[in-house]
Amino acid sequence: MKLVFEKGYAGRRLELVAPLDVPEEKLDRAFLREKGPRLPQMSETEISRHYTELAGRTHGVNDGFYPLGSCTMKYNPKVNERAAALPGFTGIHPLQPEGTCRGALEVLQLAEQYLCEITGMDAMTFEPAAGAHGEFTGLLLIKAWHVRRGDTRRTKIIVPDSAHGTNPASAAMCGYEVVSIPSQADGCVDLEKLKAAVGEDTAGLMLTNPNTVGLFDKNILEITRIVHEAGGLCYYDGANLNAVMGIARPGDMGFDVVHLNLHKTFSTPHGGGGPGSGPVGCKEFLAPFLPGQGTEESIGRVKMFYGNFLVVVKALAYILTLGKEGIPEAAANAVLNANYMKAKLSDVYEMAYPGPCMHEFVMTLEGLKKKAGVSAMDIAKSMLDYGIHPPTMYFPLIVHEALMVEPTETEPKETLDQAVEALHEIYRKALENPEALHGAPYKTPIGRPDEVKAARKPVLRYHWEE
Ligand SMILES: *Cc1c(COP(=O)(O)O)cnc(C)c1O
Q1: Which of 173, 237, 280 best tests ligand 1's pocket when mutated (most atoms within 8 Å of CB)?
Q2: In the prediction, which pLDDT does 365 show?
Q3: Cis bond leading into 441, ω under 30°?
Q4: Which of 210, 258, 381, 389 satisfies CB 3.0 to 4.6 Å to 358 for a cystine?
Q5: DSSP β-ladder status, 257-260 and 361-364
Q6: What is the CATH number of domain 332-455?
């Protein structure tokens, strides 16, 4: 397919801007370009076809199954987009008088109330623009609380190795020393290792739960007790609340701070770098430290105004549509779908952790690689030929040749069955003709790009031939 710059003909154009109907203002020459920009010259039909063709070359939740673990690529009701597009929400300015935007303030207040109820927290900020930004904000709350009490010896944050990669990164960004503790063979936190790691220098613990191998830590109450007894606070990475929302609450498990990813669990589509929202909830004693409180203790702003407000509108629309019964039902279906696929695949695929999982599960292709030389990468690439987006690959790092599958609650049984069938067929091919899999995918517009070069030396500009 040609690039848009390689298309078009001199003089062909499309007039979308209405003729000038106000007096023309002449700009100072200093601000003018010497030559006009070189833009492709095309008709509306040509442009429309160009972008439609481009769209056909990608894969989104509207195209097919998208079981990308730890990302929750689910179908988000389009009606929530409508709610966020209402002119009363899109046309307001963050500095306009409060009396003129009561509805928007009510959205923030209601969303805070419901999300606090879902997480078991007392107060929340919507400023953080994404999950990792929320982690950073939450850790600043923990830090501010220790410092306020004059306890400056607490310089370490404990992070189990089953945490999401952003956890240690956020702790380091906050100036903390990261103490990594290994998981047990069953994927849960090793309590003895945790006891040995806590002390007077522990500022807190960050726990991803369900963790990156899709398991709910069965010792969660014991974990928060150990950290609290040592004088630390407990942070809950709730980015993947899909499995537990409306069923179990971080606040009841002993956590002091939690962040959510509204752009995973609460109905904002993501994946194109679009606006996200990582609200941070906390217990009462930390509330004065929240951003934008106007209190002396506040950590200050982490983003202008009210954060990505329209994402909050979608989250509220989602919560109100599903209601008190629908939210736990969605969570239960997410867990059911993951366990259904896990059970169906267990006959040939090796699971990294046996037994029931939460909303996602991790397979290890280490055995197949040894046996047939077929890697997790080969399997993932082959799935593209079946119209399925590959699962998350080579993550979490604690599992070798990992494929991490998250079907989500919005997929029907038929889709799961088709995916299982495809994976079984790919497995057979891997044993019969491993060579063929090294070349997959065969049916996509692009086969295997050089991923390192694409990431390190991206071509982001078109260079015109003069
Ligand atoms: C996605 C994710 C994050 C990071 O969220 P971003 O919005 O990408 O910054 C953190 N923790 C977990 C468990 C996640 O799945």
Answers
A1: 237
A2: 97
A3: yes
A4: 210
A5: unpaired
A6: 3.90.1150.10
Phi then psi dihedrals of residue 264, to 5 deg: -120, -55
Which residue spans within 327-455 are E strands per DSSP? 361-364, 392-393, 402-405
Q: State the span(s) of the chain assigned CATH 3.40.640.10.
A: 78-319
Residue of the CA atom closest to atom 2 of ligand 1: 239
Residue identified by tokens 């805070």 is: 112
- Whether 170 is in the pocket of ligand 1, judged by its Cβ within 6 Å, is no
* pLDDT tens digits, one per residue of 393-433: 998 889 999 999 999 999 999 999 999 999 999 999 999 99
Q: Find, among 222, 266, 219, the residue nearest to 112 by Cα.
A: 266
Average pLDDT of span 117-124: 98
User: For a substitution probing ligand 1, which of 261, 270, 302 has the most ligand atoms within 8 Å of its CB?
Assistant: 261
166 within ligand 1 shell (Cβ under 6 A): yes
Q: How would residue 294 be classed by pLDDT, with cut points 50, 70 and 90?
A: confident
DSSP-assigned beta bridge partners for residue 430: none
Cα angle vertex 241, ends 236, 246, to 5°? 110
CA dist 70 and 358 (Å) reads: 11
What dotted CATH number matches 78-319? 3.40.640.10
Most distant CA pair in the chain, distance: 77
CA distance 200 to 436: 57
Position 16 pLDDT exceeds 80: no
The CATH 3.90.1150.10 domain(s) of the chain lie at 332-455
3-state secondary structure of 243: helix
Under the banding of pLDDT at 50, 70 and 90, the label for residue 39 is: confident
